[in-house]
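Hi all, long-time lurker, first post. I run a small reading group and we've been trying to get comfortable going from sequence to structure in the token notation. Rather than ask abstract questions, I figured I'd post a concrete chain and ask someone more experienced to write out its structure so we can walk through it together at our next meeting. Sequence below, copied exactly:
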Amino acid sequence: MTQDRRDGDASRKNRTTPDSHMDNSNEQAPPKRRFKKLIVLVLFLLFLGGAAGGGFYFWKTRTAAAAGTEQAEATEHKEAETEVKAIVDLPPFIVNLADNESARYLRMTVSLGVGGDEKAEKPDPVFSTKARNAILAVIGAKKSEDILTTEGKESLRREILAAAQSVSKAPHVVEIYITEFIVQL
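-- Answer (accepted) --
Happy to help. Here is the structure in token form:
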């Protein structure tokens, strides 16, 4: 009987009982739960990142649209200011140039394109006189070789525009039109 008992004990050990089978499944269950938690955590983080990215995109497009609207309004206002509303013809300039070798003369006719109020009529004579004086100061300091090239004429045009703009705020000088340009050599 002792041997039967031993055989019985051995067979009991080899036999799987429902309790022993559950013990093995409990040992494997925590890794499955961890894996599920990891998947849920990753999905939550992806959702959170997508929401943050979407919010950032919405914020950026909204601020860009607002800035675009402000910029468009500023551009419209600036274009309205820089639009030529009237032309002021100045009498022709006949000026001695600053050449040292020989006497050189410049005959030039300039018209001023002014902006501002559409209702504004012809500018007063004080404005025309101030603009003419500022332009004469620029032209009188030039040498013939400075103004005979295309770049020289463009530079002269920019200098005359700056001088005419500096004399008065209203009417605002927007453009300079050189309608006659003769240099006697």
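A couple of things your group might point at:
The radius of gyration is 45 Å.
Residues 18 and 24 are 10 Å apart (CA to CA).
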